[in-house]
Structure formats: structure tokens, C-alpha cells
Amino acid sequence: MTVLQKKNESPIAHLTAADIEAIGRELDALRQEVVESRGESDAAYIRKVIAVQRKLELGSRAALLVSMFPPAWLVGTVGLSVAKILENMEIGHNILHGQWDWMRDPKIHSTTWEWDMASPAEQWKHSHNELHHTYTNVIGKDNDLGYGIMRVDEDQRWHPLYLVQPLSNFVNACLFEYGIAAYDLELGKNLASERRRNDPAFRARVKAVLRKIGKQASKDYLVHPLLSGPSFLPTLAANVTANVVRNLWSHSVIMCGHFPEGVETFEKKSIEGETRGEWYVRQMLGSANISGSKAMHIMTGNLSHQVEHHLFPDLPSNRYAEIAPKVRDLFDRYGLRYHSASLPRQVGSAWHKVFRLSLPNGWMAQTTPRNAPAQVVKLVRMTTGGAKARRQLQAAA
Amino acid sequence: MTTTVPQPTPARQPRPALRDRVLKLVELATTPLLPTDYLDLVAPLRSGAALRGRIEAVLPETRDAATLVIRPGRGWRGHTPGQYVRIGVDVDGVRQWRAYSLTSRLGRADGCIAITVKAIPGGTVSNHLVHRTAPGTVIQLDQAAGEFVLPTQRPAKALFVTAGSGITPVMGLLRNHPELTDVVLVHSAPTPEDVVFAAELWSLAADGRIRLVEQHTDTAGLLDAAGIAALVPDSAERATWACGPVGMLEAIEEHWAAAGLADRLYTERFRPTVLVTGEGGTVSFARSGTTLEADGATPILDVAEEAGVLMPSGCRMGICFGCVLPLREGAVRDLRNGEITTAAPGDGVLIQTCISAAAGACDIDH
Questions:
Q1: How distant, in Å, are the alpha carbons of A323, A332, B147, B351 from that of A329?
Q2: In sequence order, what are the residues at sequence separation of 6 or more whose Cβ sits closer than 8 angstroms to the Cβ of residue A242?
């Protein structure tokens, strides 16, 4: 994944500045169309999703009160997992984007909403809405790309530590909500120096996160198990399961958004003085969609329409499906690639990349059954040798 | 010139401390939501909930006016005749707040209250309420407010001057104060068909409860203040309540003041002074006490920051909602599409300061 600006063949080389501004105008007009037609049925939609989610959660938690009976455990765990996914994806994520602020309902508003998540809404809004959505896929600006914790780009120098990244990525997926909380706190950066560690603003944010985690954990791992009496342990197991299922699901969906092969990244200086049209084009090239059924779209919080979401992060999620064909048509007319594939394919593609980049550049591609032993020997030597040995072996490849 | 009448404030029902403690415990199980978020699904009108009401019936009064019978939530503290209530109703999915006079009799057997709404041409909320509201709709309510009420010492003689929907608070008074026996009502409406509560007013007049002077302005023209005084020769002896368009009220206020009767006049305005929306305006930040001049092309966020106000901010392009602040009063223009958003006192409309420019004077809660 070399940044677009360094590629031999840029996917936008054929676009003139006038084309890019025309794309911008078309997308502005499309946005305006949706804004003008927002209304009662959209409001009814989000209220319905919220009502269904709350009833499903209540019902599932009620079933778990007698979770020592296996059927109750199963029904309750499945229901709670789905409820938690809906709450995070279609409800929380989108409300916190301000997609429903136009309703002026203080109960469904980006400034008042709090979600079932380790990271407090306020902190997540900053790192997600401001940093990720403004600087999408700009290396050094958009931390969602994972540079801080993984090797996501051939241009990042390989180090043996990266061999464990498939494992660490899986662990991160299971504990995703805590990963996000740590990420929103920018722990890596803020724990690095004494001055940053002691910054009162940082400490206040840490406190807020710990308070939130405390409440969340006591609800799922103490209060509800206690309410279940003799079913304490099965309920505890059910709640752990539901949280892990939710974490794995949201991690998968989010990996599909910007990580599959073929999604572009950008250089920091390329966005200096970026026009609205250029910003749109960056969003178009930097996102990937997931194709599938209506139920799948809802369960991903319509992040399956990642391209549309990144173009218009504040439009109601239930409208992305309707504008997707128009957006796709725009891609076609301007000769741009609209990334869309099924969930298994996108997840597979993203994981393939995690594995590929955990190994030295070219290693995976060059390895065949015949040369496998030699390749393994080379990998071991690169792993155990010093930086110099790695450079020599890499250069010889 | 609205006169303040001391209102007995009904004492808030003390909530049992035990209930609070139980709620705190339940919160441990519902966090990050509150127990009320779940209870609202089944019992939106229960006590302890945010005040709401359910519309039980929509009764047409004229071709463009209707009375809405509302069952208020358990938290409703009652009202004094002549007062209004602010209601929040979702029109095209957007919560809109408006104030309407209460017209019902106190202590109805069914516990309901009623407001009477006249659809004004182009009026988003009034047309929705009169023509497109179905019984069963749940709306948001505020407690009743307003000082257009009778003083504790009832006047021996009263004069009511109303026009159009200005009759509504007066109907609230007439229905609930049978002890007023010497009443003159001067009411203006374009045609006889436009007179809201016509049958009831005629019946009150026939019973001798009131002397009714109806002015049909399409044929007879507008009444001026001197004309009213001439129609009611003893107007100087009467306590006067006036409700109607701003022009009418100002004329009456002037006339009554000139006659030295200002202290016997009570007026009620339905709409605040019309907002002049234009390019730019004075923006004031209520909490930080800063006031500045903003042009109509620069986002309020930029103008405020340049003036040294510490503003919340985010992407600065209208997508992240990190800069949203409540507009307490005023008008702003969305720089992206020219759309105007206005706020009246009490609305607190949330605006994105990074894409909103002043379109008139703005009072921002920050």
C-alpha cells in the first residue's frame, strides 16, 4: 500500500482539476438532495431501531436471568450479542456522527448520547469524527490506518516483531472496545514522556475512561450476574461472550472499511490546501464497501456503505443504500474504482494483508512449495540476524 | 406592558428518597442508559418522566382552526386560565416548539387540557397541528406559563379586545371565570366563518354573560383604538385585556397610555418581534459575556475565535459536529446551502458554528 503520490500509475492521473471540482459539485448536489428530503420516515426509522434494540436487550437480559437452562443461555446470548452490535453500529456510531441531530431531539443527539462502549462518547467523537474523518487515510494524520501498532505498508521497514501482528490483531479484535479506548486516549503518545503523562487534561481523560469502564464492567460482569442468582456464572459467561462477539464483529467491519487491498493512502503534504473536490476524491479512493443483504447493512451500522459514509458522514445511515447507485455511477463515469465485495472477501482481503505485511516484503509472494524450506531459512536468518543482515537479505530478494 | 400577577407556584411533589435510591441501583444495570430510557418505551406519560402529553382528539373549530385535547403526563402541575403552554411536536421529523393558549375548563373529568390552534398561512407547526395530527400522537410539553391572567382581586367590569386567534386565551378566561358578569368582548375576524368559538360566544351573549361586538374586517375594515373606545363608552372603568396582532396591541397601548389607563391594560403577544434576517449581525455569547460583529459570509466559529472566545471546534467543514452550540435566540445561515435557521427564546436550537454565519442578531449559549 504505497501512498498514492508515490505510485508509478496514479489512479487519478487521468482526472483534470476541473474534473475533480465537477465531482465535488455533483456530490454536493447529491448531499443536498438527501438533506432536503430528510423527514418523518427517517425519524421513524431511527426511533424504531432504538426501540427494537432496547426491547431485544431487555428480553435477552430477562432470558439470561435463568441462564442455567441451556436454551435460555443460548437465546439470551445471541439476543444480547445482536443488541450490543446494533447499539454500537447502527445507533451509537451514527448518532455520535450527528446523523440525527437535524431532528432536534435532545434524546437522540450527538452532544447527549452515550454508548455501550469502553470509550466515552466525547473522546471517541474527537478521535473518530475529527481526526479519522477529516484526515482519512493520510499517513501520519489518520491513526486509524494502524501505523502506530502494526505494519500496514510495504514502505514501513520490516522488523521481526511484526511476525506476531496476526496474533496481536486477533487479540485486539477480541478486546476491541478497550483498544479503541486506549486509542482515543492516544496512550502510545501520551505515556511516552513524563510531561505528557502528568498533563492534567490527559489525566482527566484517563479518569473518565476508567470510570466508564468501571460502570460498563460492573453492569455486565457483576450486576446482571448477581441479579441472575443461581445463574450467576452462566450469565457472566453470556455477557463476556456477547461483548467478545460484538468486539469481533465491529473489528471486522471496521477493518473492511479502509484496509482491504487496493484502498489508497495519501501523503501528508498532499492535503495542504486541499479543495472540497479533492477531499471528496480522497474519501472515494480511501474506502471500501461490503455488499450484502439489508440485515447485513443494518448490522454493520451501514458502514458496509463505507464509501458513501465517508463522503457524507453526517447523512442518516438509512439513506446510504439509496444514494449508493448514484455514487457508483459517478465512480464509473470518472474511471475510478469503486471497491465493493462480500463480507468474507473483504475480511479475507484485510487479514491477508495483515499476514503478508507481518512478513518481509515479497516473502509471501515468492514462497512456493518448492522453495519453502529455503524461504523459511531466510526468514529465520532475517529474524535472528541484525538490521544489517535484514537489509542485505531483503536487497538480495 | 404585560403586568405581572403573582402566581402561586404549586409545590413540586416531593419524591421519596427511597425511590431515588432504587433508581440509582437500577442505573447500575442500565448504564450507559437510564431506567427512564426503557420506561419511556412503554409509559411516556408516567410520573417522573420528562413532561409529555398525548393528543386524545383534534376537534375542528373553523376551516383553519382546531382544538387539541391533550392528556398531560403525570408531572403536569396544572395551569391558570389565560396561560399558554409550549409544546414540542415533530414536524417532518424535526422537533419544533411553539406556544399555544390553553382554552379548556379547569378540572375536566377526564384530566385532559386543551389548546386551540389557528393555522397561519405557511405556518409549519400550526398547519401540522390543525390538519395533519392524528389522535394518539405523543408530544413534548412544558409547564404552563404566562401572565395574561385575572388578578386575585377580580375586576367588577372587564373589557376583552381580541383579533383572530387572540380569542383563545380570552376563551380560557371566560370559560373558567363565571364570576365575571359585566364583560364586553370586542372581537375582530375577517369573516363570520373565521370566528373561532362563534357558537359559544353567541350563546354567552344570548345568556347576557357578555356583550359581544363582532367586527368582520373583510367587509367592515379594521377597528382602531379610538374606534374601540367609542364602541365601549365606559372603557375607562374597565380592566382591559387585549390579545392579537402586534400592530393592534401597540395602538391600544398607546391609546390607553394617553388616557392614563396604562395600569388597567393587560396585553398578550403571540409572536416575538419579527426577526430581521439579513447578512451578518451582532453575536453575543451569553456565558462568556462577549459580543462581536459578524459578517454574513464568515462562520461564527472563525469570528468568535478571532475575537478571543474559546470555542469548541472540530473538522471546521461541517461534518464532525464538534463545534455544536445552542443558539438561544437569533438567526444563522448555513453557508453550504443558504438555509436559514432561527431560534426563539427557549428553543436553544443546536447549530454547527463552523458552517453557520450570522443572519441577524444571535445569542449563543456559550
A1: 10, 5, 60, 33
A2: A77, A80, A81, A83, A84, A220
Closest by Cα among A338, A217, A306, A281 to A14: A281
Residues A175 and A247: beta-carbon distance below 8 Å: yes
| Cβ pair B322:A129 closer than 8 A | yes
Domain B157-268 part of CATH 3.40.50.80: yes
Q: Which residues contact A152 (CB under 8 A, 6 or more apart)?
A: A1, A145, A146, A259, A353, A357
For A125, the closest of B28, B322, B336 (CB atoms) is B322
Residues 318-347 of B with CB under 8 A from A: 318-322, 324, 336-337
**Any idea where the domains of chain B sit in the sequence?**
20-49, 51-141, 157-268, 281-364
Question: Are β-strands B356-364 and B324-334 bridged in parallel, bridged antiparallel, or unpaired?
Answer: antiparallel
| Helices marked H in A87-111 | 94-96
A227 touches chain B (CB under 8 A): yes
Q: pLDDT per position in chain B (366 positions), as tens?
A: 333 344 444 445 555 688 888 888 999 999 999 999 999 999 999 988 899 999 999 999 999 999 999 999 999 999 999 999 989 999 999 888 888 999 999 999 999 999 999 999 998 899 999 999 999 999 999 899 888 999 999 999 999 999 999 999 999 999 999 999 999 999 999 999 999 999 999 999 999 999 999 999 999 999 999 999 899 999 999 999 999 988 899 899 999 999 999 999 999 876 544 444 568 999 999 877 779 999 988 899 989 887 767 788 777 777 778 789 999 999 999 988 888 999 988 788 999 998 999 999 999 998
Cα distances (angstroms) measured from residue A244 to each of A81, A82, B58, B214: 9, 12, 51, 73
- Report chain A residues whose CB lies below 8 A from the CB of B28: 215, 218-219, 223
Strand pairing partners for B325?
B351
Q: What is the pLDDT of residues B162-197, one digit of tens each?
A: 999 999 999 999 999 999 999 999 999 999 999 999
User: Which architecture, in CATH terms, is B281-364?
Assistant: Roll (3.10)
Any CB–CB contact under 8 A between B263 and chain A? no
8 Å CB contact of B41 and A111 = no
Is residue B84 a contact partner of residue B51, using CB atoms and an 8 Å limit?
no
Determine the angle formed by the axes of helices A343-358 and A165-174, rounding to 10 degrees. 140
DSSP-derived secondary structure for A165-178: HHHHHHHHHHTHHH
Please give the grid coordinates belonging to residue B15: 419524591
Domain B51-141: CATH superfamily is: Translation factors (2.40.30.10)
Give the tens place of pLDDT for each residue, A36-69. 999 999 999 999 999 999 999 999 999 999 999 9
**Grid coordinates of B16:** 421519596
Selecting from A54, A133, A314 the residue whose C-beta is nearest the C-beta of B38 gives A54
